[in-house]
Amino acid sequence: MRARSARDIPALLASNSPLPVDAAVLDARGRRAAQIRTDVVDAKRELGVARLVLICSAPGRAATRAAVRAGADALLVEPHIESALPLALRAICADQVVISAPLARGALHADALSYREKQILGMVVMGFSNHEISQKLCLAESTVKGHLSSAFGKLDVSSRSEAASIILDPNQGVGAGVLAISGAGGTG
Amino acid sequence: MTGTRLRIPEHVVYREVVRETVVFNLQTGAYHSLPRRAAQILALIERHGTVEDSAAEIARRTGRPLDSVRASLAAYCLELARSGLLQLDARPARPRPSGQGSRAA
Question: Distance between CA A161 and CA B87 in Å, rounded?
Fold first, then answer.
């Protein structure tokens, strides 16, 4: 059975199968971190099942973390989905979490935000404009934009509000710890 | 420390957000959440540069006794300094010429 979105699932189930659902497979290709999180939460709530497999199109680190934190039990990427899916379903039914090798390596990769990107993102989260940031950090506004664009790419977000959301809400993504500058003193 | 120069370090930015003051340390990447009123205190410190002058303005605005305001503000400034959010300069501030208002930081 195929549903176009998580919200369509209950109707689809009601019309097609009276049997309980052990696991669901959700096609999340092309979705971003915040959308994936919503997809997972919606699917689990609407389905009322504990296990969910996500098929993704090579999401970034933030999206992978968001999916797992939201409750996805398996994350699979192309091109080997057909061979991996049966194995993943068996594994998650045995209470395992399955993450394809490229996603797992990416998620565990060391933080790649630069010093400047962390500073700029920190101010973005507080609501400072690019102009204000450029004044404070003695940078050209175009330089601030460049750093911000690079940071957005690394966090797999497309807007300031999305960046703030995943930094301020640890359940959605990376949490404020992503801005910690190594070698610095204590945190507050 | 009432005459000690106070300065908000270059690596500290702050902003009042809804019900709190959020302070971000650009050197450590750490956020600090302070009471909402902290932003007003930090702005006064930026403007006046000393506990004495800042306390005088707070006392004038609120009608509270200057001694009490001065003591509370000094204690709070020490706390901020311990967190690296305020710099204290041991050199005393230059005395104000008589008949003039508060000195800008």
Answer: 32
